[in-house]
Design a protein that fits this description.
Distance between the termini: 41 Å
Helix content: 25-40%
Bound molecules: adenosine monophosphate, glycine
C-alpha cells in the first residue's frame, strides 16, 4: 500500500516510523516532513491546507489512504473534501473535529450526553461576559478562561480571581490576542486534580482504548515556567488505575458513542480525551480529534499490532473485527528543545550525537529539525527532538532514556530532568 502522512512534528515522525514497520506498506509520503522523517518517507512540499494539490497528488500517485496528524487541516475540513473526491482518509469530519476546534461545541456535547466535565458558561459578547463575571462569579473564586477556537494550545488562561478573568476576556475578545479564536469565550470552573490523556481508536461505532499517558506541559522541572506543547510523556500512567479505566470504558465512552449517533457525527480516527482526575473521578477537560504530541511518541512504541492494519479496519468501519495488542512494557519520552522555547529561540544550530544512539536504547523522533546540504540535522523549531525508551518498568525506562539524552548535543539545548517522576510517586 501507499500512504500519505500529513504533518511534520514528532507525532508525525512516530506515525511514519510505525507505519514503516508494516509489511503491507510499501511506500510512505509525508508533507512536509523533517530531517528524521525523510529516512522512512518521501518528503513532499505541499501545504497541509492546500487540499486541491494534496488530493491531486493522491490521485496521481494512487495513494491508498491519507493519515492526518495535526488538528488544523481536520478543522478546515480535509476529510470532507477528500470524501467528496472519493479518497480514503483517516481522521474525523469537519463537524466531528468541532469537538476540538470549538470549546463551546465540545462543552455542549458533554452537557447534552451527561459526560462529566467542569461547569461552564459561554459568551460571544464582551459586555455580557463582563457583567457575568461582575454579578455572578464569587470574589476570589478561581476561574479558567478559554478562547473558543483553535489557538495552538495557548488559548487557555488560568485566573486566580475575577479581576484576572476580566483582563483575559479583554485580551481575547477586544484585543484579539488569539485572532478569531477568541471571538467567543468559555468560562470554566477550575478543577483541581491530576491530568491524564486517554486516547482511543474509533470508527464512530466502537472504541479501542490505548494505554493512558501523561505529558508534562510546563517548560521547567517541577512543573514550573511557561506552558509548552509538551516536554515529555510516559505511558501507561499509573494514575489511570484499572478501576478508573473501567469507569471510562463503561460510562464515558458509551455516552460519546450515543452522542456521535444522535448528532450524526462521522468519526473515523483518533479521539484524545484529556481528563482531570478529581478525588478518583474522571472529568473531561478537552477532546482532541487527533493523536497527541508527545503522547504518541510513547504510545506507538507500545503498539504491537500493525498500525496500517488498524487504519484499514477503521476505514472499513470494522474496528471491532481487529484485536489490538499492546506491549506490557513502559515507555518514557523526553523532548529536547531549543533554549528560549516557548518564547524566542535560535534555529539552524547543528545537532550532534544522534548516530551514537541505537534504536534499542532510544527511538529518535525528529520534531523541529531540518537537513543541511550534507543531510546532517539542524535545529528548526522550538521542540527539536523527542527520545523514547521502552523498558520493563517506568524507572528503567527513565534511566535508559536519560542515558541517551546525554549523548545528544546542540547549542542551548534544553530538556526537563524530571520526566515521569510523577509516575514513580503514583505507581
Ligand atoms: P484545554 O485545551 O481545554 O485542555 O486546556 C489546556 C490545559 O489547561 C489543560 O490541559 C489543563 O492543564 C488546563 N485546564 C483546562 N481547563 C481546566 C479546568 N477546568 N480546570 C483546571 N485546569 C484546566
Ligand atoms: N500533548 C497535548 C496535545 O497534543 O494536545
Amino acid at each position: 500500500m501507499k500512504v500519505l502522512v500529513i504533518g511534520n512534528g514528532g507525532r508525525e515522525h512516530s506515525i511514519v516510523w510505525k507505519l514503516s514497520k508494516s509489511p503491507n506498506v510499501e511506500k510512505i509520503y509525508c508533507t512536509i516532513g523533517n530531517a528524521g522523517i525523510f529516512k522512512q518517507a518521501e518528503i513532499l512540499n505541499i501545504d497541509a491546507s492546500d487540499f486541491i494539490s494534496l488530493s491531486y497528488f493522491v490521485i496521481q500517485n494512487k495513494i491508498d489512504y491519507t493519515f492526518v496528524g495535526p488538528e488544523v487541516p481536520l478543522a478546515k475540513g480535509i476529510v470532507d473534501y477528500f470524501h467528496s473526491k472519493n479518497l480514503k482518509i483517516f481522521g474525523p469530519s469537519k463537524k466531528a473535529a468541532l469537538l476540538e476546534s470549538s470549546k463551546s461545541f465540545a462543552k455542549d456535547f458533554m452537557k447534552n450526553y451527561s459526560i462529566p466535565t467542569a461547569k461552564y458558561f459561554a459568551f460571544d459578547d464582551f459586555k455580557l461576559a463582563q457583567d457575568f463575571l461582575k454579578t455572578c462569579w464569587e470574589d476570589n473564586k478561581k476561574i479558567v478562561v478559554k478562547a473558543d477556537g483553535l489557538a495552538a494550545g495557548k488559548g487557555v488562561v488560568m485566573c486566580q480571581n475575577k479581576e484576572e478573568a476580566e483582563i483575559a476576556i479583554k485580551e481575547m475578545m477586544q484585543d484579539k490576542a488569539f485572532g478569531d479564536a477568541g471571538e467567543k469565550i468559555v468560562f470554566e470552573e477550575w478543577l483541581e486534580g491530576e491530568e491524564v490523556s486517554v486516547l482511543s481508536f474509533t470508527d464512530g461505532k466502537s472504541f479501542s482504548i490505548m494505554p493512558p499517558a501523561q505529558d508534562h506541559k510546563r517548560v521547567g522541572d517541577g512543573d514550573t515556567g511557561l506552558n509548552t506543547g509538551g516536554m515529555g510523556a510516559y505511558a501507561p500512567a499509573p494514575i489511570a488505575t484499572p478501576e478508573l479505566m473501567k469507569n471510562i470504558k463503561a460510562d464515558i465512552l458509551p455516552k460519546i458513542l450515543t452522542g456521535f449517533q444522535k448528532e450524526n457525527i462521522d468519526y473515523k480516527g483518533i479521539l484524545y480525551i484529556g481528563f482531570m482526575i478529581v478525588k478518583g473521578q474522571p472529568y473531561v477537560l478537552e477532546f482532541n480529534c487527533r493523536f497527541g504530541d508527545p503522547e504518541t511518541e510513547v504510545i506507538l512504541p507500545l503498539l504491537e499490532t500493525d498500525l496500517s492494519d488498524i487504519v484499514v479496519h477503521i476505514l472499513e468501519g470494522k474496528l471491532n473485527e481487529i484485536d489490538i495488542k499492546w506491549s506490557n512494557k513502559y515507555a518514557v519520552c523526553v523532548v529536547l528543545s531549543s533554549g528560549g522555547y516557548p518564547e524566542k529561540y535560535d534555529t539552524g544550530i547543528p545537532i550532534y550525537g544522534l548516530d551514537k544512539i541505537s534504536e534499542d536504547e532510544a527511538i529518535i523522533f525528529h520534531a523541529g529539525t531540518a537537513k543541511d546540504l550534507e543531510n546532517e540535522p539542524l535545529t528548526a523549531g522550538g521542540r527539536v527532538l523527542v527520545l523514547t525508551s521502552v523498558a520493563d518498568s517506568i524507572k528503567l525506562a527513565i534511566d535508559k532514556v536519560y542515558k541517551s539524552v546525554e549523548k545528544v548535543k546542540f547549542l542551548k539545548m534544553h530538556y526537563r530532568k524530571d520526566i515521569a517522576q510523577r509516575a514513580l510517586k503514583n505507581g
